[in-house]
Amino acid sequence: MQNDDDEIWELRLYIAGKTTKSVAALKNLKKYCETHLKDKYTIEVIDLLVQPQLAEGDQILAIPTLVKKVPVPIRKIIGDLSNEEKVLVGLNIRPVKKLE
């Protein structure tokens, strides 16, 4: 059985072009992943202006939307991901303890 610590997080970020919110969402997501999931994540960015047909598979209704595919359960977060605590809770990520 695979232990949670070895699992690679598969994240998919849906955007529509290089809008301010889309750029902020990707920047925030990368920062959180580097802090809390170091070397244990993949981010797939899907631009719906380029591939609109991909929105249907994950039932994307707003953008930017982050979808956590693995580990299950699948979770979605909509917005620019600027609230770190909300993102970590939404993705069920245990924050890395900061050294005092």
Task: Write out key terms for the chains shown.
alpha+beta, four-stranded mixed sheet
Give a description of the structure.
By secondary structure, this protein is of the alpha+beta class. The protein contains 2 helices and 4 strands. A 4-stranded mixed sheet has the order 2-1-3-4, with helices on one face. Helix 1 (20-36) links the parallel strand 1 and strand 2 (41-47).
Q: Concise description?
A:
This protein is an alpha+beta fold and 100 residues long. It has helices spanning 20-36, 84-91, and strands at residues 9-15, 41-47, 65-70, 75-78. Strand 1, helix 1 (20-36) and strand 2 (41-47) form a beta-alpha-beta unit.
Any chance you could write out the topology, listing elements then pairs?
Blueprint: E1 9-15, H1 20-36, E2 41-47, E3 65-70, E4 75-78, H2 84-91
Parallel strand pairs: 1-2
Antiparallel strand pairs: 1-3, 3-4
Biggest pleated sheet? 4 strands, mixed
Unreliably modeled segments:
none
Q: Rg to the nearest angstrom?
A: 14 Å
Arithmetic mean pLDDT: 88
Task: State the order of secondary-structure elements, H for helix, E for strand.
Answer: EHEEEH
Cα separation of the termini? 34 Å
As laid out across the biggest beta sheet, the strand order is 2-1-3-4
Summed up, the helix count is: 2
Structural class: alpha+beta
Question: What general outline do the C-alpha atoms trace?
Answer: globular
Strand content of the residues, in percent?
15-25%
How many extended strands? Answer: 4
Question: Percent range for helical residues?
Answer: 25-40%
